Amino acid sequence: MTEKYAEERVSAEQTIHLTVNGKPYELNVGSKPDQVGPSHTLAHTLRETLALTGTKVSCDNGACGACTVLTDGKAILSCMTLTVECHEKVITTIEGLMDPKTGRLDPLQQSFIDETAFQCGFCTPGIIMSAKALLDENPSPDEKEVKEALSGNFCRCISHYQVVGAVLAASEKAR
Length: 175
Ligand code: FES
Ligand code: FES
Description:
By secondary structure, the protein is an alpha+beta fold. 34% of the residues lie in helices and 13% in strands. It folds into two domains: 3-96, Ubiquitin-like (UB roll), CATH 3.10.20; 107-173, DNA polymerase, domain 1 (Orthogonal Bundle).
């Protein structure tokens, strides 16, 4: 959807309905601080409007994967997605992976801890969300498929040594 089309569509609706981490939100489109501007990215809205700062913005240019979230179950770059494009979508961020009743981490998050695979605070949420999308679609990936799924997540410190193992371990435990 082009920005112009999205603007026209939403200016007709004036309100964006979306579900984030199981919670419904109604966001008004406009230029006030608590409103969503037509050019706001989903990353901006998640962090600045909904205070969900678990999603990180690093390059803000579609190059690093730090801002990865799930939209209708698919991994997307929230810095490259306009919020107005998310009307009636279901979004999951890193905050939404924990079980809200028990407070237990998602098995994938736990696997990152168990395998000492957590990366820096900028990279980890995006890596986990990319891996989550993979395991939801393919619960038994092989190493090549894990690497492929995470190929859009870049870090500057080159310390991804345990990440692939953590994703494979989470997959094995779920079987
Ligand atoms: S912050 Fe979105 S891809 Fe880098
Ligand atoms: S893990 Fe974040 S820069 Fe390497």
